[in-house]
Amino acid sequence: MRDGWPERLVVRPFTRSDARQVAGWQYAGPWQIYNFDSADDDELPSAADGYMAVADADTDRIVGFCCTGPEARVPGLDEIPAVVDLGVGMDPQWVGRGHGGHFGTTVLAQLRRDYPAIPVRVVVQTWNTRSRQLFRRLGFVERGEHHCVQNGRSVAYTVAVLSA
User: Fold this and answer.
1) For the chain, how are helix, strand and coil distributed in percent, rounded to 5?
2) Which of 26, 55, 70, 87 has a Cα at 20 to 30 A from 63?
3) Domains in the chain, ordered, with CATH?
4) What percent of the chain has pLDDT over 70?
C-alpha cells in the first residue's frame, strides 16, 4: 500500500452510505465544479442511476465511483445506442497523487465484463488536462468537443472514445 492507497480495488454496488460519503467530498480550485450540490437523500447518486463504488478490495473503503448511462452524459450530449457512456470520480484526497491509472484500469476491467465488445465514451472538461491525459493513457482517443450550458455558464468538454 503506497501512501495509503489500496493495492487491490474492486467495483461493487453503490450503497446509500457511499452516496452520502461522495456527496461530502469537496474538491478545491477549478475542480469545485465536481462537488455535489445537494445533501438531500432523494437527490444523492444511487445504484439505480447507474452508480458503482470503487473500493479497497480488502477493507471496502470507498476511493471513488463510476457511473454509466444518462448520469455519465452532460446536457445536450445525445445517447449513442452502441456506446457506453462513462463518468468517474475519485475521493479528493487521492486526486493528483498518481493513482488514476490503477483506478481507471479497474473501472474499465469491470466495464468490459459488463459491456463486452462495446465502445466506451467519456466527456472531460476541456481545461482538465490531468484527466484528459489519464484517459489517453488508458487508450481513449479524443474525437471532438461538446459545448453546453451548466449552472448558467458555457462549458466545453472534450469527447473521447475507447474502441471495443
Assistant:
1) 30, 30, 40
2) 70
3) 9-116 (3.40.630.30)
4) 96
